[in-house]
Recover the amino acids of this structure.
């Protein structure tokens, strides 16, 4: 599942509408919207809220293959970037601690890239020289907190320029307007993010059911069951076709009355699977 | 459709590394790469929960300055070829190839390539090690290309050339550059040095296609080795690791016949042979991340922290491959890892 973290409601609204997300209740006290493949949490502004939201979203299901995406507005000290320009963030630095997080740029989203600096309070033009990159108030905390739960390749960050270090100019309407610039890219981002899953060859239902029959019929020990699954996986990786595993069927017809027979039979199965 | 970025689309560079000539060369070599300055390579390379196999799909380059451990004592998993002063170093960490059996997948947390740009410090450390070696009667034997494939990377950074010139100036130094590449052409104009051993890892085609992804075919490696011999370089052949594949006897016999129909046996300096083996912790780390290779679903023995074929199987494999080799090569020139 792709989980979006967005700081404010005006930023979130265009995404919620576009993705067809529905309010989800009862999981956390935070506003959460969800569909079958995406969830979106409105974290509130600042690092603490961003980190707490990440914890609340990912702490519940730490082992799930989620992808975390931070999307939102940012300020640019550089006026050469037009308001509404969308960036894929490749690196974020926390201005207060100096800590950095490099996003793994495995996928091409067809967007220009930039580094990001996360600050604790809204920055204005006076800090333009000290902050040469795009500036936001959540990115570093999002990345660091997400890094506690997810592998780095499943943590993504996108920002859209909403102002030139002039927070006063950034009305709710402007925030929603610039966030709409994400929409033409959103489908691709979701689709690509979904592809960021590690290889995991799972045994099909048919093979699993065959193994379960075999395990119960031969009364295999726990260790033997694990070995059987390992060898079967190896066999299927080597031979490619599931139909070739059907020879195990004949072992599943047999009955064992003692450990010695069971172990001898298991040794023969292992031998066949390692061939 | 998923759009994976090309390899080396990004170049992460330690700020202090940027001034080194090697870093400048790499920046020129990858002009369209996005350069991201960082403080310390470990903040990127050594962070937890990285996925080696996912990173292999789009490897990045990290330029760094190595501050310590410029030389390591040789591992007992590797052969010392009778040299008591056996060391290896890591001018580059990780490899552009993606072999299923490679221990690097379990040794390092990241698949991104780290290039250490402070080459002069590596040379200085090697000089010091030569002077202080434990057995002064024997030269210092240095394996340059264990945690990488330097020759495969030669078109990007001329590490091999630089180390060859360094070795030429150090009479008490012998280096081995081990490779699976077909890149001898990059050394073609370099004067051979009798103390630089170019070592090719050779595997039957079926092993190459099944387990040595992205590497050149056996024929191309052989052609490269042949050119090296023709130019007068000492050449070592490594049948290491030998893999227990179906009909491995016939497969390896045919492979060895093919090797020596291309290369003149009497010109080969020596041959090394070893069956698949790996440090136990590295093996388990790889198994977790590489569930799609059948190598990690077999029966192995744990022999004092080394995962390898059961002793009898491993011994049989090396004995039989050695017997095939002895048809061409004097047994004294065959080194075996047992």
């Amino acid at each position: 599942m792709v989980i979006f973290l967005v700081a404010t409601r005006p930023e979130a609204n265009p995404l919620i509408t576009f993705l067809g997300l529905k309010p989800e209740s009862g999981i956390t006290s935070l506003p959460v919207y969800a569909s079958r493949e995406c969830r979106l949490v409105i974290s509130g502004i600042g690092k603490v809220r961003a980190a707490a939201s990440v914890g609340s979203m990912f702490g519940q299901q730490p082992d799930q293959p989620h992808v975390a995406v931070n999307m939102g507005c940012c300020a640019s000290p550089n006026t050469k970037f037009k308001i509404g320009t969308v960036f894929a963030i490749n690196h974020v630095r926390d201005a207060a601690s100096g800590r950095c997080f490099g996003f793994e740029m495995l996928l091409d989203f067809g967007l220009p890239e930039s580094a990001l600096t996360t600050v604790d309070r809204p920055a204005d033009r006076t800090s333009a020289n000290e902050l040469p990159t795009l500036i936001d108030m959540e990115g570093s905390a999002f990345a660091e907190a997400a890094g506690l739960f997810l592998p780095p390749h499943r943590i993504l960050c996108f920002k859209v320029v909403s102002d030139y270090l002039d927070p006063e100019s950034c009305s709710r309407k402007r925030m929603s307007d610039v966030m709409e610039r994400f929409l033409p890219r959103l489908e691709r981002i979701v689709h690509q993010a979904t592809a960021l899953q590690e290889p995991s060859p799972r045994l099909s239902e048919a093979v699993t059911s065959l193994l379960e029959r075999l395990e119960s019929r031969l009364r295999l020990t726990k260790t033997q069951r694990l070995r059987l699954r390992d060898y079967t996986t190896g066999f299927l990786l080597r031979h490619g076709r599931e139909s070739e595993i059907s020879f195990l069927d004949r072992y599943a017809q047999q009955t064992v009355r003692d450990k010695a027979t069971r172990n001898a039979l298991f040794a023969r199965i292992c031998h066949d699977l390692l061939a | 459709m998923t759009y994976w970025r090309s390899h080396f689309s990004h170049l992460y560079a330690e700020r202090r590394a940027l001034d080194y000539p090697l870093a400048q060369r790499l920046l020129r070599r990858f002009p369209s790469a996005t350069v991201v300055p960082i403080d310390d390579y470990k903040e990127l390379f050594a962070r937890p929960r990285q996925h080696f196999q996912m990173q292999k799909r789009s490897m990045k380059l990290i330029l760094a300055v190595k501050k310590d451990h410029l030389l390591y004592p040789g591992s007992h998993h590797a052969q010392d070829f009778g040299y008591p002063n056996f060391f290896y170093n890591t001018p580059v960490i990780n490899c552009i190839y993606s072999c299923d059996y490679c221990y690097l997948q379990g040794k390092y947390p990241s698949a991104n390539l780290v290039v250490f740009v402070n080459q002069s410090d590596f040379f200085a450390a090697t000089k010091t090690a030569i002077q202080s070696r434990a057995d002064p009667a024997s030269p210092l034997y240095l394996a340059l290309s264990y945690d990488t494939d330097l020759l495969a990377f030669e078109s990007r950074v001329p590490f091999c050339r630089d180390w060859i010139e360094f070795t030429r100036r150090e009479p008490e130094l012998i280096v081995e550059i081990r490779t699976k590449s077909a890149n001898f052409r990059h050394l073609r104009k370099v004067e051979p040095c009798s103390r630089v051993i170019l070592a090719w890892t050779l595997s039957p085609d079926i092993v190459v296609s099944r387990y040595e992804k992205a590497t050149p075919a056996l024929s191309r490696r052989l052609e490269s080795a042949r050119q090296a011999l023709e130019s007068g370089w000492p050449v070592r052949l490594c049948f290491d690791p030998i893999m227990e594949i179906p009909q491995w006897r016939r497969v390896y016999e045919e492979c060895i016949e093919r090797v020596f129909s291309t290369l003149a046996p009497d010109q080969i300096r020596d041959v090394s042979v070893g069956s698949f083996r790996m440090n136990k912790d590295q093996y388990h780390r790889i198994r977790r991340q590489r569930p799609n290779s059948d190598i990690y679903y077999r029966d192995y023995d744990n022999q004092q922290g080394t995962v390898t074929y059961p002793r009898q199987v491993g011994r049989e494999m090396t004995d039989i491959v050695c017997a095939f080799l002895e048809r061409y090569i004097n047994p004294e020139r065959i080194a075996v890892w047992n």
